[in-house]
From TrEMBL:
Keywords: Signal
Gene Ontology molecular function: hydrolase activity, acting on carbon-nitrogen (but not peptide) bonds
Main location: secreted
Ranges of residues in domain NodB homology: 75-135, 207-292
Pfam families assigned: Polysacc_deac_1
Entry GO terms, CC: extracellular region
Protein's name in the database: Polysaccharide deacetylase
Cell compartment(s), UniProt: Secreted
Superkingdom of origin organism: Bacteria
GO BP terms, alphabetized: carbohydrate metabolic process
Amino acid sequence: MGKLSDAIFSAGNFVANKIQPPAVILLYHRVTSLAQDPQELAVSPANFDAQLQHLQADYNVLHADQFLYYLKRGKPLPKRSVLVTFDDGYADNCLEALPIMTAQATPALFYITTSKLNTNKEQWWDDLERVMLTGNTLPATLEITINGAAHQFNTATSSAITDTYYALQAILRFCSPDVIDQAMQYLYSWAGCGADGRPTHRMMTFDELRAMADSPYVHIGCHTHRHPAVGMLPYTQQLQEIGQSKEILESLLQEPMQHFSYPFGGRKFLGSKRYYNADSIKACKELGLQMVCANYYGQVHTWSNRFALPRILVRDWPIAEFKSRMERFFKL
Ligand SMILES: [Zn+2]
């Protein structure tokens, strides 16, 4: 944002926060330590532990259903309310985050993408990293057709490969799941590697997911079946992608799903590209979902749109940085 829009945004929040104290929804993806993390999705277990300790000491961490209760009834959230959320359903959520949450008695809401649960396959953005950035000997150029458009990339040096990786990320995130699958199949044969993923990047097994759902500190929500930018899909496909993850989770866990988050979830307009749109909100309502999170910077008040709530992405911040950022999130 520019300086003027920043100032207008702050002034708007200042007025809003006089009327009602703000709440903040935090977004995590992974709690683990990785050899490399080009999407910066992992928070180290030590930082996560310190972050939760700080939240417990200085904030009011709510359960997902408490958070929903206030929003649905239009009742002001308690002062300094925080909701902790996780996207995607990585195995480390069960193996590394849950023990820390349990030790600190801190609840969180986990949004699960279902298509790769209980498999050794990686999410496509990780798979792309595996193919391109983990030392495979690659051809010097990549010619690939995606969605009917021909692309040519230089992959002769490691910095060219890194640039190509980020360029492909930017293209594929707005493609349909079928187009992404086709592109990945092509890349496997181009790089001469297989489709099996790394154990460090797998999603939860069904047993791990059930163990998560049994914890008093865990709420489960859905996050589509194959993780597309739903805003790029026609309404019926949006309904299908969101509905399929809801159905699978409800049948696995034998409990109704009320929560959903949009994959990627930013609301910036990138030409004709959208992570979600009015049809996405309509599909969530049609499916009976009660609370839906997006992924843009902002505070929550009871008048916020319950079908596109802002969330603040947490990076692998040491505790001092986390503390000062939390203060800022609440002031804005
Ligand atoms: Zn996601």
